[in-house]
Design a protein that fits this description.
transport; flat; 5 helices; 2 domains; Cation/H(+) antiporter 15; Cation/H_exchanger_TM; transmembrane helix; 0% strand; transmembrane
């Protein structure tokens, strides 16, 4: 670890290095149909997303929560909850506004939860 980065950074960068996008930039033959077949691409994407989710889950279990339990813990906890809850509410509100204009994709009641989760879990809200 020459730059003292966490191991998860190295894992994610190595996964990116062998991705079809990077291999396609290097050489078109590396990401050809024989190396990354279209038929199995959906399954491969699903498995890679599950692997990323599992890795992040394990890293979350290994996280040290003692800084949250001290006197500044309540302030830290409220801030961390706020940066999730506020974008979730904004996303749900925007979805509700679009639902009033009867946009076809915004008719389902689960779309409120979907847009709330998108805003809370991505950088689009910041």
């Amino acid at each position: 670890r020459p730059f003292r980065q966490p191991r998860i950074v190295v894992d994610l960068l190595s996964a990116l290095a062998i991705s079809p996008i990077v291999l396609d930039m290097i050489d078109k033959e590396l990401s050809s149909e024989s190396f990354w077949p279209r038929k199995g691409k959906t399954n491969m994407e699903m498995l890679s997303n599950m692997g990323l989710l599992y890795t992040m889950f394990i890293k979350g279990l290994q996280m040290d929560m003692t800084p949250v339990s001290n006197r500044r813990g309540l302030k830290t906890l409220l801030f961390s909850m706020g940066i999730i809850v506020l974008p979730f509410l904004v996303g749900s509100t925007i979805s509700g506004i679009f639902a009033q204009y009867e946009v076809h994709h915004f008719q389902s009641p689960t779309i409120f939860i979907f847009w709330g989760a998108v805003m809370a879990s991505s950088c689009f809200s910041t």
